[in-house]
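**User:** Once you have settled down, spend some time on the protein underneath, comparing sequence with structure tokens, and judge whether sequence predicts the tokens.
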Amino acid sequence: MKKVLICAFTLTLFGGMYAQEDAKDRKLNDGTMAEIEKEGWTKKGTNSLLFNQAAFSNWVAGGVNSAGLLANMDYEFNYRKGKHMWDNRFILGYGFQTNEGEDTKKTDDIIDLTSKYRRQINESKWYVGAAANFKTQFTKGYEYSDLDGDGTDERYVTSNFMAPGYLQIGAGFDYLPNENFELNIHPITSKMTFVTDDKVFREYSDPNTYTEVEKFGVDPGDSFRYELGMFVGARHKMNLMKNITLDHQIGLYSNYFDHPERVDISYSALLNMQINKYISAQLTGDLLYDHDQLRELQVKQTLGIGLTYAFEK
């Protein structure tokens, strides 16, 4: 029920905000929709280096000295020619946090590469095409737990580069009324899951004893899982007010042959608050539900202020 409500709320949010943007576009263009970007190559991107920090000295209420750093790259390379469109987006991110007296722990780790080819259907806002998406991470992820009761947390590998790695390839129809909104309906979508580090299958009962269990839908001893299903997604970009933008997207995936009612849900949002040309504050939020990973809603949120360099040409 929780994931259904989340899905319904998110789609309603997309629909409501798109309707507002759609009305603005019609008004601004005297009854016509905003044009999809100019022909040829369009290159744009953002580089961000964000900081967070806390320091205490003789502070009666207490506190832990800490410092964190988050680096992010978000590039888009898009091509337009007549009825043809080829869109490419590359997102790379890595962050860590250091608390006094503790090991450094990462707070973000993402590799997300997407490529889409589309061809316009007649003179409509509908396109037919195909898309590919690859996701993984740079380094190992750990769970920290004091299994031997000595008061010190040990760390256990829970993920790594290509453990998991996801490759999703699909074909279908896209609706693009303007450059700020798109809807993807891909009834034929293959999803491939890779797990290339055997350590992620381990579940420890104490620091030296473990059993191997299924992780990310892949059984111990295997390194690959294939699924065929349907993908529905949307992306929306909007200006909330001057110098404040929201870019968010949602993806829904259902496996045709293995519990199709268990819909995988992924939602991500980036709220960028530009202070001046090179300084901004960014708030990110991610929601993920994947029955094969964890049968609970996964939530990630980051907030930082720092240097941002954006380009478009």
In short: The two ends are 45 Å apart (CA to CA). Helices lie at 2-28. The CA atoms of residues 44 and 261 lie 38 Å apart.
